[in-house]
Automatic annotation (TrEMBL):
<dbReference type="InterPro" id="IPR036291">
    <property type="entry name" value="NAD(P)-bd_dom_sf"/>
</dbReference>
<feature type="domain" description="NAD-dependent epimerase/dehydratase">
    <location>
        <begin position="4"/>
        <end position="242"/>
    </location>
</feature>
<comment type="similarity">
    <text>Belongs to the NAD(P)-dependent epimerase/dehydratase family.</text>
</comment>
<protein>
    <submittedName>
        <fullName>Epimerase</fullName>
    </submittedName>
</protein>
<dbReference type="Pfam" id="PF01370">
    <property type="entry name" value="Epimerase"/>
</dbReference>
<dbReference type="InterPro" id="IPR001509">
    <property type="entry name" value="Epimerase_deHydtase"/>
</dbReference>
Length: 314
């Protein structure tokens, strides 16, 4: 049986990935400290997953897990909020960089050779340089501790491939949305907060004037891309994943209101420190590998709303 480890597997993207991998018949191990993820995200596959509620920064513990010698390692555990990293730079660094390097080093020292070690990086590494769209070889400008750690960890991931022969890839997600994204922190992904406000008829705070753009991508396309890239024998280096389309935040909110049939109450506040103004992916590399997204923004928003509103099972 194919054995896979997903760190951060009780989180938003991780749990969607774990469920798809279980459906493929993989044997799954998940490590998540539940700081942001919730066990309920894995309820439908609970008896098919070996779940460890544990901190990935505990090196000894992680070494004992890695001794299971996995076919695939998907490294998603992270403190995923840019704003949180600005508040807690050192703590987030331990998770977002140190734990990744320690895992790579342990694989090297022990001579483990997973078919793929996949690290989830971020579009945040590109920063605010004006060139758009962002290609994998565009200039980077990591403006926050989160972006610095993601960039360093992806470089370690690629270098451990080049220097020591590990099969590694690093994926730069643009902005992912969809079911199971936890809305309960001020640092949660924006569309999960919008969803919560629409459901509870609460006021939404928009930081900035809403003209900031993002390349939003539905989680189902992300999961398909992660599996596709990890299984492609010729995948290597860094891949952007987005739709290759940018939308102003306010326009996406309007599209979401349309899907929900509800109006959002918005109050405007000052832009967040370190926030990125323009974001757009060049996805040529991903397309050249043979991947094609199926869902798209509007279908994704519609399906997300139906899930959130309880009209569809997930
Ligand atoms: P998430 O917060 O839902 O998932 C991260 C998971 O890691 C959570 O379940 C959390 O509990 C867990 N975690 C955090 N610290 C941990 C620790 N010390 N030990 C063990 N587990 C820990 O966020 P997500 O959106 O699912 O993000 C998954 C990955 O994708 C992250 O690496 C994130 O940086 C990256 N990413 C996400 C987006 C996005 O738009 N959501 C974009 C770019 C990159
Ligand atoms: C997001 C991800 C980050 C990822 C990056 C890649 C989360 C929490 N963050 O960061 O992991 O690496 O994409 O592009 O998943 N906003 C509001 N009101 C709110 C919350 C947010 O106006 O209540 C605004 C923000 O100021 C920002 C935009 O919405 O301009 C998007 O914010 P957010 O969802 O946190 O995403 P990013 O910061 O782009």
């Amino acid at each position: 049986m194919v054995k896979a480890l997903v760190t951060g597997g009780a989180g938003f993207i991780g749990s969607n990935l774990v469920i798809s991998l279980v459906e493929k018949g993989y044997q799954l191990t998940v490590v998540d400290d539940l700081s942001m993820g919730v066990k309920a995200n894995l309820a439908t596959v609970a008896d098919q997953v070996e779940f460890h509620e544990h901190d990935v920064c505990d090196h000894e513990f992680m070494h004992s897990i890695l001794d299971e010698d996995f076919d695939y390692i998907y490294y998603l555990a992270a403190i995923a909020s840019v704003a949180d990293s600005v508040e807690r730079p050192y703590e987030t660094h331990q998770v977002n960089q140190e734990s990744v390097v320690d895992t790579l080093e342990y694989l090297r020292v022990k001579g483990y050779q997973p078919k793929k070690f996949l690290f989830t990086s971020s579009a945040a590494v590109y920063g605010n340089y004006p060139e758009l769209p962002k290609r994998e070889d565009s200039r980077v400008q990591p403006l926050t501790p989160y972006a610095v750690d993601k960039y360093a960890s992806e470089r370690f991931t690629i270098d451990y491939g080049d220097l020591y022969g590990l099969s590694t890839v690093a994926i730069r997600f643009f902005n992912v949305f969809g079911p199971r994204q936890n809305p309960n922190s001020p640092y949660s992904g924006v569309l999960s907060i919008v969803t919560n406000c629409l459901l509870k008829d609460q006021q939404f705070t928009l930081y900035g004037d809403g003209s900031q753009t993002r390349d939003f991508i539905y989680v189902k396309d992300i999961v398909n891309a992660l599996i596709f890239i990890s299984e492609a024998t010729n995948s290597y280096g860094v891949y952007n994943i987005g739709y290759g389309k940018k939308h102003a935040l306010l326009d996406v909110i309007r599209m979401f209101e349309e899907a929900a049939g509800k109006k959002l109450k918005i109050q405007f506040a000052e832009a967040r420190n370190g926030d990125i103004q323009e974001s757009l992916a060049d996805i040529t590399r991903l397309k050249e590998l043979g991947f094609k997204a199926n869902w798209g923004l509007e279908n994704g928003l519609r399906e997300y709303w139906e899930y959130a509103d309880g009209k569809s099972k997930w």
